[in-house]
Amino acid sequence: MSWELSKVPLPKEHKAAVCIWDDLDVTTTEAILGAAGDRDEIQRQLIEIYDLADNKQNKRSAILLDLYYFTIQFALERGFSKEQTSSFFSIVKKTHEVCIETPFGNLEQCFNYFKELVLCHAVKRPPWSISLFNPEEVKAVTEYVVNTYFRHFKLYKYAFTPVVRLDLAINYVGLPDTPEPEEGDFEVSS
To answer: Which of 47, 70, 111, 180 has its Cα between 20 and 30 A from that of 189?
Structure first.
């Protein structure tokens, strides 16, 4: 499969915004928090919401299910409210989406976007940001995402971005084209 440069998505700048209830609505978040301690039930809900039913055959779906489940698990362990859980989940999901939007290296861009998303949920400046996480929670969220997601950034990148193949042909101006060698043209000396 040959790609043209115009078909390969280039990294884009993303503007962080408050993302409470973006990916997990109130009822879904309440149902997930109500299933605390029941891994199978939480995973079942995530499979249903994000259409990950093929997680046994599709590695990408399995990886996403793990990412989403352990994000919820962290929120449960930290005792996050439903608003905090929904926002934290959206922060991780949006960071991942920025990571995989291009096959090019965009670690710094992704990390900056993550920091801006966290900041949007840690400082009270309506309508641009809300004070949802206190400084201790910001530190915990940042450490968790750095130690789980960004530590394995290249693995996520490898698993989720399409392979780009480069076909390179060089033509020198002023030199005749070199004919393709035929099978019998080379002799092997022993």
So the answer is: 180
| Two structure tokens written together for 86 | 């929904």
**Cα distance between residue 2 and residue 8, in whole Å:** 11
Q: Burial of 100 by CB count in 10 Å (0-12 exposed, 13-18 middle, 19+ buried)? A: middle
Question: Is residue 14 a contact partner of residue 113, using CB atoms and an 8 Å limit?
Answer: yes
Give the SS3 label for residue 172: coil
Q: What is the pLDDT of residues 12-65, one digit of tens each?
A: 888 999 999 999 999 999 999 999 989 999 999 999 999 999 999 999 999 999
DSSP 54-108: TTTT-HHHHHHHHHHHHHHHHHHHHT--HHHHHHHHHHHHHHHHHHHT-SS--HH
Q: Would you say how long the chain is, in residues?
A: 190
Check if the beta carbon of residue 143 is closer than 8 Å to that of residue 77. no
| Residues 96, 111, 113, 137, Cα dihedral to 10° | 90
Any residues with CB less than 8 A from the CB of 190 and at least 6 apart, and which? none
Q: Return the H-helix or E-strand segment holding 137.
A: helix 135-148
pTM: 0.81
Residues 6+ apart with CB under 8 A from 15: none
Q: How far is CA 68 from CA 4, 176, 183, in A?
A: 33, 58, 55
